[in-house]
Amino acid sequence: MSSKTKLGTTMGLISVMLAFFAMGIIDIIGIASNYIKNDFALSDTTIGTFSFILFTSFLVLSIPTSALMNKIGQRKTVIVSIIIMCMALSMICFYYNMVGVALFYVLLGVGITMIQVGFSPLIASIVDKKYLSTTLTLGQLTKAAGSAIIPLAAAWASLKYGDWRVVLPAVIGFSILVVLLLFFTPIKEDEPKKALSFGQSFSLLKNPFLLFAFIAMLCHVGVDVGMAIYSPRLLVERAGVTVEASTFTNTVYFICRTAGCFIGTLCLSFISNRKFFHISMAITLVGIVGLLFTHSTTLIYIFIGLVAMGNSNVYPIMVSKCMMNHPDNKNEISAIMVMGLFGGGIFPLIMGIVNDSVNTQAGGVVVLIIATIVMTLWGIMWRKD
């Protein structure tokens, strides 16, 4: 590899990693839902419905985004997605009413769908396939770092200025800088060998392993988003803390998620993806089962941390495995996996309904236990490479 090629690869990776960080600080669905619920006195079911609307984008727009990506390229798809997410933040920054909130969820869903579909194939164009899983994990590490910072910044703004939204203009400004960097960074993208039609893309799900991977992805994202939304409410219910204080659970979750991604980045260089996946599922299950029974504030934080660490590397492992199984259709496979992010809309809604029905946050924890068991079964289906 020439020095010029190495420099291009390095600059490409830096710009993409900064885009991952931008996604981490923009994707504020967890903390925003809690503040919006409190500010507008909404029920768990109502806020779960808003989340459902956001995550419907993953189900509806993932395949069309892969088709768009085949036409305009992966880098431009990521650039457009960040711009749309900035528009979403502008809605609740400058139009904080129910109309603005609704537009926030819709636009954020569109933007996150596009960036998630675009990221994996873009990285696959930059790095060798043997480094794909590790690089995707590094991207998740970078995203988790942003996700760990934003709850602290929002809580600080709420306490100091009485409005958590004060931090949003800074987030928008940083994201625009990332857009400019991506725009001026040349990245040589892999041309799709065989662009599939809408129907042909869905026909890939006839493969049993890929279909089960899609279902497992629904569960993975359901656990991730469910924890972000409902772990603060679990702490409020069990420990009686304020809403502002409860947001620290999001920081703990994303700090531990960041640590989990860092550990994954190191371990995946010498442990097989399959074995590491099984270890991750065991850690996740221990953490969620612990949350079902404990009333100790300290143990709640510990178990939240275990769930975060265990669930942190599932997405890059699943995506890289499925993309390597179908190397000629990376864009379409990425889109199918991103469709699984719809689980982030299904599970909060189910958890909200269950919690409202049994009048305790423990009901939602049971839902997450079932989701983790399903992911574990997919791992058992995974044969040795």
Break the fold down into its secondary structure elements and pairings.
Layout: H1 3-26, H2 29-39, H3 44-72, H4 74-94, H5 98-126, H6 132-161, H7 168-184, H8 198-203, H9 208-239, H10 243-246, H11 248-267, H12 273-293, H13 297-311, H14 314-325, H15 330-339, H16 343-358, H17 362-381
What is the gist of this entry?
With 385 residues, this protein is mainly α. Helix content is 82%, strand content 0%.
Q: First CA to last CA: what distance?
A: 28 Å
By DSSP, the count of extended strands is 0
- CATH architecture type: Up-down Bundle
By CATH reckoning, the class would read Mainly Alpha
Low-confidence stretches: none
Note the total helix count: 17
CATH topology-level fold name: Growth Hormone, Chain: A
Characteristics:
385 residues, 17 helices, 0% strand, Growth Hormone, Chain: A, mainly alpha
Give a description of the structure.
The structure is a single chain. Helix content is 82%, strand content 0%. The two termini are 28 Å apart. The chain has 385 residues and is mostly helical. Helix 3 runs antiparallel to helix 15 (330-339), helix 4 (74-94) runs antiparallel to helix 7 and helix 11 (248-267) packs parallel to helix 13. It contains 17 helices and no strands.
